[in-house]
Amino acid sequence: MRYVLKYSILLIVLISVSHNVLCQTDVIMPATDTAVFDIYPYVDYTVYDAGGTANYPHSAHGVLILTSTSGMPIHMEGDFDIQKTYDKLYVYDGPDDTYPLIGTYTGTGTLDITGTRDTLCLLFTSNGSTARPGFAFKACAPDSIGPEISNLMVTAITGETANISWTDRNDSSSRWMLYYGTSPYNLNKSVQVESPHATLRGLQPLKSYYFRVYNNAGQLLSTGVCGAELGAFTTVCASNAATCVNYTDLTSCHVSCYYGSYGNPQAYRGVIDYGSGSISSRHTVHYNTNEYDPRTGASNATRLKVVPDGEIASVRLGNWNNGGQGECVIYE
Prior knowledge:
This protein is mainly beta. The protein has no helices and 22 strands. Strand 13 and strand 14 (189-193) form a beta hairpin.
């Protein structure tokens, strides 16, 4: 099936664009029509479904064509929340649905794509029942030369600090802003420097961090995701290693919790703890020294104590839910 492209008016924020201006604007997808929108270099756009910041409408069948004015491929990323199976977003690597399908998106998840051409085609369809928040993707395209800032390097990583350096092909740059955070979509911290390197302090051990660097020349200071390379690194465990590991602190960087199946208990990493009374908990700390396990006997006289006599706490792996679950805790 081929869609005939026709122009319709989009309500947008009027902006003045040049290579030396970095700004943001919103693009709202039509509900039942086709619209074409130009993507200028180093401008951060937010692409919304037809509902904008509200839920998308019922019975939608809209097409949005994004065209890069620089001729470079368009990048788009962000989260989506679409009624699973019944409502769908299709993204094509070209101006219409005859070009290769990059992906079909439904349910909840994250989109992170870069086309191979100067155009992306988005087709969104919804039925007449449940409407959900939809999507708000960041979209951008570089110029034909490429990013001014490159060669991102991260060195001297500890549990609390990291050194970051980069190169800048723009000789007019005199200061840089480094935005960083624990989510690639929310770089909510920043540091400004007057040389192409920076030291991040106050980090948390064993955390993944993401960052982008902007200059004050061609790529102006911005919190946007476009026009600058995304860097990433993971801090190590605290440098002042504990002489005695606290076995009840399951979130410590000296403690690693895993869960999975009976045959592979280390399939996934993370703590699953909804409290000692929840059947869904799989890593639990018990502190009540008078607690007995009701599944080990008819009365307290024959039941096992959850916390052994003389101890202050215990760590329980698993639960009383039938099935082939597996858990693991590693102390180091």
